[in-house]
Amino acid sequence: MSKLSGKFSEVLKHEGVVSLMSWGVEPHLVNTWNSFLVVTDDERILIPAYGFRKTQKNVDVNNKVKIALGSKDVLGYKDYPGTGFIIEGSARYIESGEEYDMMKSKFSFLTRVLEITVDSAKQML
User: Fold this and answer.
1) pLDDT digits (tens, 9 = 90+) for 30-73
2) How many C-beta atoms surround the C-beta of residue 61 within 10 A?
3) Considering Cα of 48, then 54, then 56, then 58, what sign does the dihedral take?
4) What's the CA gap between 41 and 1, in Å, rounded?
5) Among the four 64, 67, 70, 85, which has the fewest Cβ within 10 Å?
6) Of 52, 124, 60, 112, whose CA–CA distance to 90 is shortest?
């Protein structure tokens, strides 16, 4: 069963801030952009990482993460002007291989790829 809805895919087509929360060594919040997220056929989320060093230290201790993202340009429940999602999942870093190469071709600045395996995705608005 699909965890990421069509509404989630629609949100990714509009620019917005993505906030990623990790905790392990210490709680840490980092941001990226909707347009930087790539969803694989098996619904993993790939994020180009240049910084994200504190996030990586946390993931090395505790790989659980939460992501919040949205867009005011996508109608939510009851035609609310905007919608967003909270994603929970597990993370790991990819430093080589086919997916790394594909992401590097799209985002030349990356040094690693943050891969999120989605456990749950909840539409908030």
Assistant:
1) 999 999 999 999 999 999 999 999 999 999 999 999 999 999 99
2) 11
3) negative
4) 13
5) 64
6) 60
